[in-house]
Amino acid sequence: MPTFSRRTLLLAGVAGVTAFTATADARPSDPFTLGVASGDPTPDGVVLWTRLAVEPLAEDGMGGMPNRPIEVRWQVADDERFTRIVQQGSTLARPEDGHSVHLELTGLEPGREYFYRFRTLNHISRTGRTRTAPPPEALQVPLTMAFASCAQYEHGYFTAYRRLAEDEPDLVLHLGDYTYEYEAGIHVAPTGNVRHIEGPTTTTLAGYRRRQAQYKSDPDLQAAHAAAPWAVIWDDHEIANNWAGLQPDTPQADFAKRRAAAFQAYYENMPVRRSPRLYRRIRWGSLATFHMLDTRQYRTDQACGDGLQLCPERLAPERTMLGDDQEKWLFDGFRESAARWDVLGQQVFFSQYDYIPGDVDKFLLDAWDGYVADRDRVVAGFAGVRNAIVLTGDVHAAWGAEVKQRWDDPSSKTLATELVTTSITAGGDGSEEYQDTPLWLKENPHVKYFNNRRGYTLTRFTPDELRTDFRGLDHVTRPGSPVHTKASFAVEDRVPGLHRL
Q: What is the edge-to-edge ordering of all strands in the sheet holding 430-431?
């Protein structure tokens, strides 16, 4: 058997070649066109995922698979050559779940690296690398975590995902806009669209399945999924632009049915557990707890018709981003936390941000600025944890901000730190900064950093410090860009706020 380096296995997609019994029903086409993934690690397990599709862009959304269950065999090993297999078995990929496979494994060792693969129809999948979380009491085991958001297929190539995989993180968080719902040519980047999306605007289960399949067919995205376990959360574009609860951005018939179809396709295509809700916690020993929030499904509809404007209604105390149940769940988690770092994995800009320099204040009402009372309650809740960190996507640029006790008083106490990742592609190539950035930062002194390149954010958690590297690409309108660290910051234990390195 030939020997492959980890990078060859994980980034080039070479499948293992040891004996692995196939099913009797062989087909000539590869059903593993959408890759493999893992997610939501625990100390004794992880979710393993794949979805069978011999024709990923089939118009009926079924990937060219027959309307019957297909047996899929799987293996987990603690070496990449699969000479030490620790678990194996078989399961069924069912048509009612889009022929997806979700294995919720248990019985693994904590804090361990594992390798996994699938086989069916005489084909073997690529090999994936995953990792279990450390034991609950573990504090001294550092964590390298990358987070990303906003991958618009038409706006650019997914090189940032491949660069993320090459950084070999232990965990990846995706904070939303994993896919975009638009038909071709509707959502155009400033630098123009460089790739073509198939199908109409997604409104049906078949459409959402097909859109997910086109994204999952991208080799750079597959490389990132195969490199580490992911924890994912949706934002708006996995369903429809700026949706809120059962309210779409623009009036449309039977939005509830459309949303249910999008939810089903999201589950089928993500390495998540079967659960009645998406908000959940990922614990990394006693070092970090990730509170993954759903800021779409339970929110009040946006105030004043959404958009960027002056809007007194945004201050109404009854307005909620999280909903009563999720808010209680979050505050219970704060009170019970023994983690060194408590981290919110969420979607939209958390810190106050006035977009108009001068005496007139204008705020983005789809973000937390449209839900001021709920944000104030969350900020008050930060007092119950040792170190509070907010991770954010959505806004297509990298930002660093300090969460203030009183937003309009720069000298007020800093209670938390917000790190905002740029987009994978949304917005096209971008630039180093906007021309009037100094004016924006003067209007918002708690914002300490801005960069408008595409990329992702790499973090390293230790008991004493959180280090952040904002990673940016030169371009996404053509493939193969190198990645550079645009800026690095540290947050010290018990000292909220950003210190530039």
A: 280-284, 288-292, 341-345, 388-392, 414-420, 398-404, 447-453, 430-431
